[in-house]
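yo

u said u wanted the structure for the complex thing, so here. seqs first:
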Amino acid sequence: MPQIILTGLNHKTAPVELRERLAVGDSQLPGALEKLSLPDRIHEIVLFSTCNRTEIVFTAEDDKAVDTVKELLAEFKNIRVDEFENALYTYKDDKAVAHLFKVASSLDSMVVGEPQILGQVKKAYRSSVACNTSGVILNRLLHKTFSVAKRVRKETGIGDNAVSISYAATELAGKIFSDLSTKRVMLIGAGEMAELAVEHLISHHVSRITVVNRTFENAVQLADKFKGEAVKYEEMEAALKDADIIISSTGAEGYVLQAGQVKQVMKKRKHRPLFFIDIALPRDLDPNINRINNAYLYDIDDLKSIVNRNMEKRHQETVKAERIIEEAVVKFRKWLQDLEVVPTIVAIKEKIEKITEIETGKTIASMSSLSTEDEEAIRRMAQAIASRIMHDPILFLKDTGAHRKDSFYLNAARQLFNLDPDDEEKPS
Amino acid sequence: MILETAAKATLYSATMLYIAGMTFYILYLFRQNDKMQNTGFYLMAAGAALHLLSILACSVTVGSVPAHNLQQTLSISGLALAGTFVIFKNRLGLKILGVFAAPLVVFIMVAALLAPAEPAEYTSLLKGFWIVSHIILIFMGEAALALAGGAGILYLLQEKQIKSKRQGFFFRRLPSLDRLDSASYTLVATGFALLTFGLVTGFIYAKGVWGKFWTWDPKEIWSMVTWLIYAILLHCRLTVGWQGRKSALMTIFGLAVLIFTFIGVNFLIGGHHQGFTK
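structre next:
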């Protein structure tokens, strides 16, 4: 039976320069797969590469394949093996499977719980399928990987809490306003900071934008970018009446907005809620604004501490995720072991015998006139038919021919006889 | 007699269903599993249906709305609350409201079952269209207003989470302030309308029985106070924009006055609604 081997490097073992040199882009992937799958000792292969990692999963008969893979990768990426060898890790069998599960579940990511990695692995797997380099074992392994990652996401809080400033701000806005798409965002200050910090809020939810800036031209420019409207600095207070979320990021020394001003505005807008986000340093907005009814103020430190606490929570959730992964590794190992010739034949025989027994039992029970000998004869006949039918398929499984892939036929046989009924994970 | 025993048995069963519903809602609060919430909701609905049957059965034997002693009165208010919750939950899209409503219903029902079942005096006083409408409208209206108070409490909880900048237990579990506020508004508006009609039918009934619309009965006075509080709340909301925190505080204050009017007046002061709480 072939081994499952995983070798690769990631953000923990290799600096970004090295990761860049070994990254395999989408367009390069088919070429890399073709080259790496060429040697006979490598059976199946899946390769995925992101800005944080390059990982190669393959099945091979012996350990020498690891060196082959290294050399071929070096050749393909035009780099010497000794330049990256130290950054590589290599796992086999259970450990390889567990590592793959972890990576896809985003436990190994730079930002634990980030959702992109699963999509990246899926995409890479599709390339392998298209290039015909993934076979029975890796197909099964990858499908299992996807379902484990899904389960981790669903059953643990690993992706629950916002871990970036802009996500945290959006989440907060969502707890103040039920429908963000009807709300208006007002940017005070046309700096890059505002743009970056609220990108998420703007690109995903809110549609109406107002930009206020001391230099009016800059306001116009930024407003154009977001298809919003620009307002002169002097008109800020008037514009506040129609805004719902205010993001301030000016370089001003004092407060741009005092609590007293906001109180006046609140009356004019009939106390509809206002959400202030102050990402400027020194701060733009009077902290007392948070004490006004229906007004909520978060500054950059508040948001940062939320993000830190959420990070902490995600790390706590990894314990749960690891338990799910361990369980899945055991299950996968069982499937792999059953994919051997002897367990498969035993399982087929047991299934057929059971069916024969049940069916003859039913027939005999309905025929009351039979003697004991007659009953015996019927049983023997049924068993003989069953074993004669199974004779040729079993012979074939025992010797599928020297150059045929055992696992392929074993897998087909197991599926034909539905020998693994409890995990019906269909490829997604 | 047989009907009465049957009514009692269904009343107990309904309470058991409410307790089961409450259990699922509490589980839902911790686990955030939607299936639990749905199960809790259907259990509450089943409890309310059974409860309604029980009260209808009782009405048949008595020949009017069974609100003759404390037990019956509490039972009716429990049904009104459960029924209002079942009707409004999906309209408001406020799953979490069950976490408030279910335990309150259970509390009222347990109190009802524990209350001494004084033999009710079945006078002819509680028969007729006006009094029956009066009782139904008042109970439904007060149930809606009580739920509004619940939404108000949830609003203050969530507001505290946001203002204090600590995203604790409730932050994730409660919906947005907007939604809680508008749910509370819908409930207040509905409850206020029902209460108004309930009071009007009460006046008409009083005219028929005592010859006067208004008799300066303590319950009447306090009912008017309750009505005024909600009238002020609605008026200020529409004119000067009393929404959010102020509105939430008012609904909770209203709820306190409501409970006093409902129970306190009878125990502390008395009046012609006395039969209610015997």
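Chain B has nine helices and no strands. The interface with chain A takes residues 158, 161-163, 165, 167, 171-172, 174-179, 182, 240-246 of chain B (CB under 8 Å).
cya
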